[in-house]
């Protein structure tokens, strides 16, 4: 584990007490547990823990359930609230392009770190050879900036989002951080000759719990639609209907360059 600490220190510098409390609360990639081909991988440098789960039915779909601690979730929600975007009862979505608010830049850095460490642990354990075993491809991870577009969605009970593939004006590699109410996000294949032959079409449910991070790239981003239907009867997990309260999400993407 000393080796991991050296690598992280080289990449991010020494973690010191002089860092602001706020910054430390969002920068937290110090341990990762990685499940690739059913094998759990873990390592710890500064004591915090993160686990990655590959959604096996869909290439390029990864879930980190414990991305944000309860305190970090509260801080993120406070930062969003301070923006005042949802003061009007009619508003339920805010978008920012280019220079993102400081808290969203911090969030991007945390996402970068948690992926970097997860990818590293996977490679260390010799599971990172195939592209599918990679949490997020290196070319996407090291682009600058990692993300330059933010959408914050606020869903009232019963509200959701229709099946869609994110617009092609955004590059590959999308991250969503989920806050407040848990929900099931369903993935269904974009119709093409192969999947039309399937009867019924495959639908993959993914449970998003508060503080989780989901990554979509490659097939997950381009060949699968995602949706959240919070209408009655759709939010079922292990036979139980999930209690529907307010839900917030922060989606980070990168605009395609125009040249
Ligand atoms: O709220 C979510 O978790 C998903 C948001 C989404 O898919 C989008 O804004 O494109
Ligand atoms: Fe989307």
UniProtKB/TrEMBL annotation:
Known SUPFAM superfamilies for this protein?
Clavaminate synthase-like
Q: What are its GO cellular component terms?
A: mitochondrial matrix
GO terms of biological process kind? DNA damage response; fatty acid metabolic process
Q: Which InterPro entries match?
A: AlkB-like (IPR027450), AlkB-like_sf (IPR037151), ALKBH7-like (IPR032870), Oxoglu/Fe-dep_dioxygenase_dom (IPR005123)
Q: Which residues form the Fe2OG dioxygenase domain?
A: 146-256
- PROSITE patterns from the entry? FE2OG_OXY
Which family would the database say this protein is a member of? Belongs to the alkB family.
| Protein known as | Fe2OG dioxygenase domain-containing protein
Q: Give the species.
A: Anisodus acutangulus
